């Protein structure tokens, strides 16, 4: 936008003619400026304050001294290094399992004729949407010696000793986490795998390669950059997960970065903010390096783009091997969805965990009678709806600013998103604590549900931005030009054309981010006060702290049922909104014409 | 009825300028076409007039209002224009009537007024029966008519067209071209039309501005530009097949004799040219007359050449000739009633031929720059040499 006098002079040759001001057709500077401020406050400031907090001797919001003593203290602690090792082991194994399985399933669904392939995508969406706490709890109940459901079943059938069968182990921790990571990898990879140019595989077949040779020699290498990008993202995810590690890992003596940070803040007395900060910084640095590596691997490509044209209907007949593929699908479905759901329902109906044969609704009556639980449900609903909406709106505006305005700072909010995507939930909580408590205005939010909302917005906006930037790109700029020349201001154009056309993607992103925000444990467990409980914090404390397993299962069941209800409502809303909008547009008085 | 004035318009996107000091004067009620190859800056100029781009320098006036310049930038929504886009740019979430009514609603018209005006303008483009259709269920031609109706709906004081026909097939293009002519004849709104298609420019325009390298190279009626191109670039662009690079030998009473190797022609030269100057001369293939050597015409000055190629095109026959080392194209008719020199002499490659280049059909051309970038940037006033008027 900014033109220098020099370049203008060169262009006109005969010196300066009347210079027009720099503010132009699409600069939208005030709008971009506001977005920049919001992005800095929500995304950058907490991370910056985290770095500062690591060098303070006091708790957030309390006067203290500068000191670097936490750095050597943390770095010389052998525990830090064993934690690093365990975190790395967890992240690497779940990534390996998740990416291999996710890639394989994406290939089965998009390229083969294996039966049941059509159920995979909805199933993966369910796994992605349902909070990790759910699988952690369910598997904790399924495999728990002596009277977990599977233990009991195995013992009843074979009489064998089942102490080995426990989810409270590396095996359980990796297994449950990998199930989730598989869903993430699948959802990110099915685009590129499906979009790969079929002529590549056809050429290989014509060259005489057998189908498995083609799979290994052509499809895998062509997709390698996309797969590498997704793998790095999964590593980042694996490094930052708190819920499973807290529920399944900590009782087994396994500690990873997020649980360690949680420990410094919640179980150490007094809380060791500086040490937590140093540990968080180490984690952020590792993750930022990974994200940088990902950008390098993808070299600026969005990782859904694999060049080439896709043709629908080209499937590879697998012959007898297709039943093996179907077995993988069914196996995953059993372990990731069916067994955990059945267990959760079963667990919520047992009078006491591990007592079989009698069923009771007492647990539901108990929890629905409990004011705290009801409050948690309404808080969580609010968190999901509000944080999801704010995050999606913000993401849409950030995408719009980057793609469609010409203001100098238009890419800044988007860059801020890249920073925050690298920061795990626990670390966001810590950063928000440091940032907001250092100011009187935002510090007043501490203890209310709103500080949780803001932290959740920071956590999920980058995810919403993926959906919204894809949607904004789809809208031809000339649709906006047409609105401007038709007499609509830029703000009006954004509402009438851009937001209206991305509405389906907007609602989808709102739902996904809302569900992620509602099911998140990392943020409320550190930021919510006892007077603002949420479902995940309640479930966690019922299950892991007070041992009320059946009640925890009942609360989760109620929560999942409400999620399903919201989903149905949203579908209805989507249909009626578009119907309403269609009716609200100007029409001739009499609808004369034949259709 | 209002006019549009553009002075010293400069627009660049970071690097090389796309529009470099362009001047343009659109008269009230006129249908002016910006004609040029891709990258000549015609669309950018149009978008600057629309307010969709903000130029780095220059002034644009619509009617008596300065919309760009004097420290002002009036946004597009306040310029009272209607615009038709190449890709139609119809909003897929609105019906036909919704699209057409949008500019009216944005100008604060009531629902009732909007509805009646929408019906009127849809009837005008013969789409009255499709008012409730959704955009996705229209053909390309129907979509562009809706886009036209939308641009007309609010009766703006200026209509802008950005290659509106180039996405349509040849037949539809011809139909819509006629509709646009009818439209301008009926409504008479001042219009600026961008195209790279000569035929559209010739059939639609009151005047044509041929653009090259970010400036207007020639502005005149379609006839002037077509018959009397001023520069080599314009001549080439309007399809003059023969562009002969000659050297002036002799100037006598406004007539220059110029030659290249074995070819010598007489040109009416208004320029102050003197012997030794290079001179470019254009002549259409259709204007070239051919004779068999034994049928030499009386009183016409001919030069002899050799047929190098002959292609039968149906009604016409295309010849390629070598005249004293210069290659010349000629187009003659199979129909003998076309007159002497214009009838196919029926010669095979290798045969000798007599060629007549009629003096009144020869157009002297000034050399012009090629695409932007390979000549120093100057303003238009400096660029058009004095006296190079062919018309």
UniProtKB/TrEMBL annotation, chain A:
In its keyword annotation, does this UniProt entry include Cell membrane? yes
**Which species?**
Pseudonocardia xishanensis
Q: Which domain of life is it from?
A: Bacteria
One Pfam family of this protein, by short name? Answer: BPD_transp_1
**Major localisation:** membrane
Q: Where is the ABC transmembrane type-1 domain?
A: 84-294, 377-571
Q: What is the topology of this protein in the membrane according to its UniProt annotation? A: Multi-pass membrane protein
Signal peptide extent:
none
SUPFAM superfamilies per record: MetI-like (SSF161098)
Give the UniProt family note: Belongs to the binding-protein-dependent transport system permease family.
Keywords, A to Z, come to: Cell inner membrane, Cell membrane, Membrane, Transmembrane, Transmembrane helix, Transport
Establish whether keyword Glycoprotein is in the entry: no
Q: Where in the cell is it found?
A: Cell inner membrane; Cell membrane
CDD domains per the UniProt record, alphabetical? TM_PBP2
The protein in question is named Iron ABC transporter permease
The residues that cross the membrane are 31-55, 84-107, 119-142, 167-189, 220-253, 273-293, 323-346, 381-403, 415-437, 443-465, 497-519, 552-573
From TrEMBL, chain B:
Q: Which PROSITE patterns match?
A: ABC_TRANSPORTER_1 (PS00211), ABC_TRANSPORTER_2 (PS50893)
Starting at the broadest rank, the lineage of the source organism is: Bacteria, Bacillati, Actinomycetota, Actinomycetes, Pseudonocardiales
Domain ABC transporter: from-to ranges? 4-238
Entry GO MF terms: ATP binding
Which Pfam family, just one, is annotated for this protein? TOBE_2
User: What are the record keywords, sorted?
Assistant: ATP-binding, Nucleotide-binding, Transport
Which SMART domains has this protein been placed in? AAA
Name this polypeptide is given: ABC transporter ATP-binding protein
**Which InterPro entries does the protein's record reference?**
AAA+_ATPase (IPR003593), ABC_SmlMolc_Importer (IPR050093), ABC_transporter-like_ATP-bd (IPR003439), ABC_transporter-like_CS (IPR017871), Mo/tungstate-bd_C_term_dom (IPR008995), P-loop_NTPase (IPR027417), Transp-assoc_OB_typ2 (IPR013611)
Q: Where is this region: Disordered?
A: 358-391
> What organism does the record attribute this protein to?
Pseudonocardia xishanensis
PANTHER family (alphabetical): SPERMIDINE/PUTRESCINE IMPORT ATP-BINDING PROTEIN POTA, SPERMIDINE_PUTRESCINE IMPORT ATP-BINDING PROTEIN POTA
């Amino acid at each position: 936008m900014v033109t220098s006098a020099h370049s203008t002079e060169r262009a006109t040759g005969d010196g300066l003619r009347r210079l027009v001001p720099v503010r132009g057709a699409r600069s939208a500077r005030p709008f971009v400026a506001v977005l920049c401020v919001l992005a800095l406050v929500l995304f950058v400031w907490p991370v910056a304050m985290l770095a500062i907090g690591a060098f303070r001797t006091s708790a957030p919001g309390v006067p203290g001294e500068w000191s670097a003593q936490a750095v050597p203290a943390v770095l010389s602690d052998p525990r830090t290094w064993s934690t690093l090792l365990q975190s790395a082991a967890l992240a690497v194994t779940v990534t390996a399992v998740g990416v291999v399985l996710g890639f394989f399933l994406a290939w089965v669904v998009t390229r083969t004729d294996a039966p049941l392939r059509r159920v995979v995508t909805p199933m993966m969406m369910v796994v992605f949407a349902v909070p990790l706490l759910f699988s952690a709890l369910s598997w904790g109940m399924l495999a728990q010696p002596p009277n977990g459901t599977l233990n009991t079943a195995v013992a009843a059938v074979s009489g064998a000793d089942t102490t080995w069968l426990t989810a409270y182990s590396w095996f359980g921790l990796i297994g449950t986490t990998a199930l989730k990571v598989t869903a993430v990898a699948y959802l990110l990879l099915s685009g590129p795998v499906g979009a790969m140019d079929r002529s590549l595989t056809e050429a290989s077949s014509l060259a005489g390669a057998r189908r498995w040779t083609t799979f290994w020699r052509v499809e895998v290498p062509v997709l390698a950059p996309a797969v590498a990008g997704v793998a790095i993202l999964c590593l980042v995810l694996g490094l930052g997960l708190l819920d499973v590690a807290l529920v399944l890992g900590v009782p087994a003596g396994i500690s990873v970065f997020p649980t360690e940070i949680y420990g410094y803040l919640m179980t150490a007395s007094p809380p060791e903010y500086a040490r937590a900060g140093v540990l968080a910084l180490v984690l952020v640095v590792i993750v930022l390096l990974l994200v940088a590596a990902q950008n390098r691997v993808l070299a600026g490509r969005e990782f859904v783009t694999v060049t080439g044209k896709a043709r629908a209907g080209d499937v590879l007949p697998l012959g007898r091997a297709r039943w093996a593929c179907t077995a993988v699908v069914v196996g995953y479905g059993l372990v990731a969805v069916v067994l955990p759901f059945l267990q959760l329902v079963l667990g919520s109906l047992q009078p006491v965990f591990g007592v079989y044969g009698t069923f009771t609704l007492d647990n539901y009556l108990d929890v629905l009678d409990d004011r705290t639980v009801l409050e948690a449900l309404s808080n969580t609903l609010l968190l999901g709806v509000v944080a999801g909406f704010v995050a999606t709106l913000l993401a849409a505006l950030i995408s719009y600013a980057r793609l469609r305005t010409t203001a100098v700072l238009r890419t800044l909010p988007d860059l801020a998103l890249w920073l925050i995507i690298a920061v795990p939930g626990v670390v966001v909580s810590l950063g928000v604590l440091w940032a907001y408590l250092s100011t009187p205005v935002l510090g007043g939010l501490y203890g209310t549900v709103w500080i949780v909302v803001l932290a959740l917005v920071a956590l999920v906006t980058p995810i919403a931005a993926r959906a919204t930037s894809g949607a904004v790109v789809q809208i031809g700029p000339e649709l906006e030009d047409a609105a401007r020349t038709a007499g609509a201001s830029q703000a009006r154009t954004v509402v009438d054309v851009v937001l209206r056309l991305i509405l389906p993607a907007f609602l989808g992103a709102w739902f996904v981010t809302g569900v992620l925000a509602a099911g998140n444990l990392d943020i409320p467990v550190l930021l919510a006060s006892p007077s603002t409980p949420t479902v995940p914090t309640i479930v966690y404390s019922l299950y892991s702290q007070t041992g009320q397993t059946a009640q925890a299962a009942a609360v989760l069941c109620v929560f999942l049922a409400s999620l399903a209800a919201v989903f149905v409502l949203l579908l209805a809303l989507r249909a009626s909104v578009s119907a309403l909008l269609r009716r609200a547009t100007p029409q001739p008085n009499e609808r004369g014409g034949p259709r | 009825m209002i006019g549009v004035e553009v002075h010293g318009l400069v627009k660049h996107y970071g690097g090389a300028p796309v529009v470099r000091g362009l001047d343009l004067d659109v008269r009230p009620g006129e249908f002016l076409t910006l004609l040029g190859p891709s990258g000549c800056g015609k669309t950018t100029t149009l978008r600057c007039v629309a307010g969709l781009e903000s130029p780095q320098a220059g002034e644009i006036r619509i009617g008596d209002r300065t919309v760009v310049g004097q420290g002002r930038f009036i946004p597009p929504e306040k310029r009272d224009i209607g615009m038709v886009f190449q890709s139609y740019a119809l909003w897929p979430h609105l019906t036909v009537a919704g699209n057409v009514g949008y500019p009216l609603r944005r100008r604060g018209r009531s629902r009732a007024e909007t509805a009646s005006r929408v019906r009127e303008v849809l009837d005008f483009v013969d789409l009255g029966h499709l008012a409730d259709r959704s955009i996705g269920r229209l053909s390309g031609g129907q979509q562009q008519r809706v886009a036209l109706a939308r641009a007309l709906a609010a009766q703006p004081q200026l209509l802008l067209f950005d290659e509106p026909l180039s996405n349509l097939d040849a037949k539809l293009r011809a139909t819509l071209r006629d509709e646009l002519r009818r439209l301008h004849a009926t409504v008479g709104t001042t219009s600026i039309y961008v195209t790279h298609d000569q035929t559209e420019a010739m059939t639609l325009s009151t005047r044509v501005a041929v653009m090259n390298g970010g400036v207007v190279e020639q502005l005149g009626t379609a006839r002037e530009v077509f018959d009397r191109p001023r520069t080599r670039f314009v001549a080439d662009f309007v399809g003059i097949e023969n562009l002969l690079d000659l050297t002036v030998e002799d100037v006598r009473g406004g007539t220059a004799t110029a030659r290249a190797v074995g070819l010598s022609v007489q040109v009416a030269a208004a320029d102050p040219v003197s012997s030794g100057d290079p001179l470019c001369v254009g002549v259409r293939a259709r204007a070239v007359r051919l004779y068999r050597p034994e049928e030499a015409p009386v009183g016409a000055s001919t030069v002899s050449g050799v047929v190098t190629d002959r292609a039968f095109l149906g009604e016409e026959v295309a010849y390629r000739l070598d005249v004293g080392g210069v290659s010349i194209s000629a187009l003659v008719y199979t129909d003998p009633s076309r007159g002497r020199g214009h009838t196919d002499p029926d010669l095979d490659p290798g045969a000798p031929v007599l060629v007549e280049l009629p003096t009144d059909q020869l157009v002297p051309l000034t050399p012009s720059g090629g695409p932007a970038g390979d000549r120093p940037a100057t303003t238009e006033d400096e660029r058009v040499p004095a006296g190079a008027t062919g018309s």
